[in-house]
Amino acid sequence: MIKQEKIYDVITYGRSSIDLYSQAVGAPFEDIPGFHAFVGGSPLNIAVGCSRLGLKASLLSGVGRDKVGDFLLNFLKKENVITDNVPVIEGARSSAVLLGIEPPDRFPLVYYRDNCADSQINIDHVLKAGIEKSRLFEVSGTALNIDPTRSAAFLGAEIARKNDVPVMLDLDFRADQWHDIRAFGVTCRAFMRNVNVVLGTEEEILAAYLSDESQLTISHQQISAPEIKGDINVAIKGILGLGVDVLIVKTGSRGAIVYLPDGTIQEVPGFPVEVVNVLGAGDAFAAGFIYGYLKEWDLYKCCRMGNACGAHVVTQLGCANFTPYEDEILELIESKGGF
User: Fold this and answer.
1) Total domain count for the chain?
2) How far from 208 is each of 25, 75, 88, 148, CA to CA, in Å?
3) What pTM was estimated for this model as a whole?
4) Which of 20, 146, 160, 257 is the most buried (most CB within 10 A)?
């Protein structure tokens, strides 16, 4: 096999949106007086986070021929994220999300993703993206929920593995984006056979292993956030058994836990901060982790970098707009005692 020249450090694949965040922290959603306009979508956030850390990041997503698409592309270009792989999709609309901020534990979201452009990324877009020329390919779990973006993601992972490009799956579980949330588990498990690194919260890990209706508790109020039952250790063991190299479980303020197929478990402490908004913290974690991973740091140090980036973002109002730059996050880590 001819070794491909690397022109990207990372390609992130999936959602991109305008995020409208409540201007009144603590206000119930129905009483929100106005919204801040930010950008969002897990892969977009990760690409911006990586770019601010000094990596050459490309986003593989889609926007509509609309002002929201212009807004997103303008932001990405200012952040030095490569937008060559963000086509304008005719007949589709750029995605939008409305978010409430009610600390410490209520952050309601409303998605507007009918006929959204990033779900129209297809096999041809993936073939043109240059995945074989990237040092890492990161995929959002929501990109697996519907075709054509689902089959294109599977092809992207195959291209990566054939070219020795590590594949990272951020589970990005959004229950209301699936016709049956058990399909999330079925699809993710199939996709993981071409994945090296899996990132997710405990809830997302349980969802990724979900297959039985008896494991669900759903009420009218829980449609977008059902309670998922199960043994987290069984789910972790099952995912590792699919052939992934490492599973990282994000545990919020407690930090992260590294699980390896040989049974190794390593807890990585977080950085205590005062929380304003937890949304986007996981994406910041992913960007920090990728930064360390591509520098060939050990997994503990990669997770510490991720924890620091996540801690920075939870003190802010939004996601990508507030992700840290390399110098400031390394300074934060040093001020907290280092890695």
Assistant:
1) 1
2) 32, 32, 31, 21
3) 0.94
4) 160
